[in-house]
Amino acid sequence: MTEETSSNFIRDIIDEYKAANPNQEIVTRFPPEPNGYLHIGHAFAIQVSYGIARDYNGQFNLRFDDTNPAKEESEYVDAIKEDVKWLGADWGDNLFFASDYFDQLYEWALHLIREGLAYVDDQSPEEMRKGRGSLIEPGENSPFRDRKVEENLDLFQRMKDGEFDEGSRVLRAKIDMGNPNLNLRDPVLYRILHANHHRTGDKWKIYPSYDFTHGQSDAIEGITHSLCSLEFEFHRPLYNWFLKNLPVPSKPRQIEFARLNVEHIVTSKRKLLQLVSEGHVRGWDDPRMPTVSGFRRRGYTPESLNEFCHRAGVAKRERVNEYALLEYCIRQDLEERAYRRMAVLNPVKVIIENFPENDTEYFDGPNHPAKPELGMRSVPLTREIYIEREDFMEDPPKKFFRLGPGREVRLRYACYITCTGFKKDEEGEIQEIHATFDPESRGGSTPDGRKVKGTIHWVSATENRPLEVRNYEQLFTKTNPEDVEEGQTFIDNLNQNSESIITAFGEPELGKATIGERFQFERKGYYAVDPDTQSDQLILNCTVGLRDSWGKKQKK
RNA sequence: GGCCUCGUGGUGUAAUGGUAGCACUAAGGAUUCUGAUUCCUUCUGUCGGGGUUCGAAUCCCUGCGAGGCUACCA
Fold first, then answer.
1. Which of A38, A104, A298, A317 is a good FRET partner for A204, with 20 to 30 A between their CA atoms?
2. In this model, does residue A2 exceed pLDDT 60?
3. A324 touches strand B (CB under 7 A)
4. Is the CB of A251 under 7 A from strand B?
């Protein structure tokens, strides 16, 4: 896709590193915890780490950070792998699990104990919290801090053997209870969890913490640059402390960057889970969800998502990207690759009076106007057709280029019709429109060369394919869904009209559509075939509408 | 009250002591069998105040503002 400037502060650091270590391969990693589905923020993180490995001919690892058996499930592992693969981040043979390193990590914990750098603490979680101090006050040493090495070794062994209850003891690093960085106030290395791990089963009764796992896992895998989001900035001194005090095989460097935020979107796993569990959406892959699977179902291409992440850029400050950029990226991609079809979403009938009854005439339309090599499809015209209700006005203003009494328009790919009259029902709603067609205009122009300003899409009223069309608006009304009044939550910002389902009529060719296929409904927008589709019911999700400068002008 | 990070048009991001650029958005125009696409044009910016320098978005000081950090989560 676009080349543009790809420079950012991380790549600058890597350029420097490469200059100093020309033969060192760059190794990055994406380390999801398997406790939920990937969202667009993860797609961004993948793009950053994978993109660097790819561009520097390095290596990219997918590593599951599975150190908390209480929250993790293998169902998520499979879903995450599918999403990462779909996004195009190829990890090759480099699939790892932090749980693969549990034995090594345990050895290293022993090492710290022997060095006098770790101790078993018998305090309760509350006591530990109190002892840690606060943002402005230093903490106090634990009464168990000066236990002898032998006693620590013995207790830690018994923790491992499952002798103690959950929460009764932890292994802590002995660093500095007065450090202004709270992460250095004797952080927890191991906690007791009598849970079943999705990969190691019941082998372990103790599990390493994130901090004791991450840097060492990076070191084991030979990660050169461990890229993560800003909130881990404060963990970096600890990350480096472990690398310094443990006999690790390599010294990775942690670099933090700002998360990707997008207007109208929440990316907190807790909140996404709530949307799913409370039934506000159809599931993790609801087309309104900011999950990778949601975007996929909505009709987004991986290329468009990657392009968006690329254009969002990498920075060190918190930012919020406009939703419009996301829409721009998918429109640009789909404009290029989506086949064109006609579908009428809000139909009104037109009767072409001089068209013979029970007759059908076929017209060819290109699948893509700029790509004749993609071939043509045939569209049937009959005496009765549907057009969009909004393409007819009883009393149109001067700049209205569509149908109105006495006006002539082109039916896309077919011929010119002129409106000769219309009927209304009791409510004053247009019921049907009458028209005549010019037989000489077949093919879209006439021998006299007269011009019609408007071209509208249409579908035969008798030879068509009914469609269930799901249109979407933002899931949240506010650009920042977290912006709530006192006593409210982000749930109160849900857009009650975020999904609307209608029945539309599409040209017969749509009967061949397959799940996941994307089309442009001409003059309307891009639509993707939903997996709920059955052979007798075709369901399409609106990915994004076409830009509409006329509609915009009308609103003013 | 502590520590850390960060402030460039409406938005996002470049410029690493030497002409503030690119993209999105918005506005206007041209082309068009999609009021789409494409093409062209235009608008708006270095948080404030000092200092160093021939020269500062960039370096220093200071003020202001934003974010992060007080889990046996990651």
1. A38
2. no
3. yes
4. no
Is any atom of nucleic acid chain B found less than 7 Å from the CB of residue A531? no
CB-to-strand B under 7 Å, chain A 263-292:
none
Helices (H) and strands (E) in chain A, counts: 13, 25
- For residue A504, the surrounding DSSP H or E stretch is strand A499-506
Lowest mean pLDDT among A83-87, A338-342, A422-426, A450-454: A450-454
What three-state secondary structure class fits A28?
strand
CB A463 within 8 A of CB A528: no
Q: Which nucleotides of B are covered by protein (CB under 7 A)?
A: 1-8, 10-16, 21-27, 33-38, 66-74
pLDDT at A421: 97
Helix axis angle for A210-221 and A236-245, nearest 10°, is 60
Span CA (A7) to C1' (B19), Å? 21
Distance CA A260, CA A326 (A): 12
A229 CB closer than 7 A to any strand B atom? no
A129 CA to B3 C1' in angstroms comes to: 19
Which nt is closest to the CA of A134, judged by C1'?
A: B70
Known catalytic residue at A269: yes
Residues in chain A, how many? Answer: 556
CA–CA gap between residue A538 and residue A210 (Å, rounded)? 46
pLDDT of residue A556: 65
pLDDT of residue A73: 87
Q: Which two tokens stand for residue A108?
A: 């290293």
CB of A337 nearer than 7 A to strand B: no
Amino acid at A485: E
Active site residue A29: no
d(CA A86, CA A75): 17
Query: Which residue places its CA closest to the C1' of nucleotide B25?
Result: A324
So what's the ipTM on this one? 0.95
Nearest residue to A101 via CA among A248, A252, A256 = A248
A328 Cβ nearer than 7 Å to chain B strand? yes
Q: Is A127 a catalytic residue?
A: no
Tens of pLDDT, residue by residue over A154-189, are 999 999 999 999 999 999 999 999 999 999 999 999
Q: What average pLDDT score do residues A118-134 get?
A: 96
d(CA A521, CA A541): 11
> Tokens 């920075």 identify what position?
A315
**For residue A499, what are the β-bridge partners?**
A472
User: Using CA atoms, how far apart are residues A418 and A436, in angstroms rounded to an integer?
Assistant: 5
The active-site residue, picked from A54, A71, A160, A269, is A269
Residue A399, Cβ density class (10 Å: 0-12 exposed, 13-18 middle, ≥19 buried):
exposed
Distance set, CA A441 to CA A273, A406, A423, A433, A539 (Å) = 57, 17, 26, 20, 35
Residue A383: exposure state from Cβ atoms within 10 A (0-12, 13-18, ≥19): buried
User: In this predicted model, what pLDDT tens digit does every residue of A524-556 receive, in sequence order?
Assistant: 999 999 999 998 899 999 999 999 999 888 876
DSSP A98: G
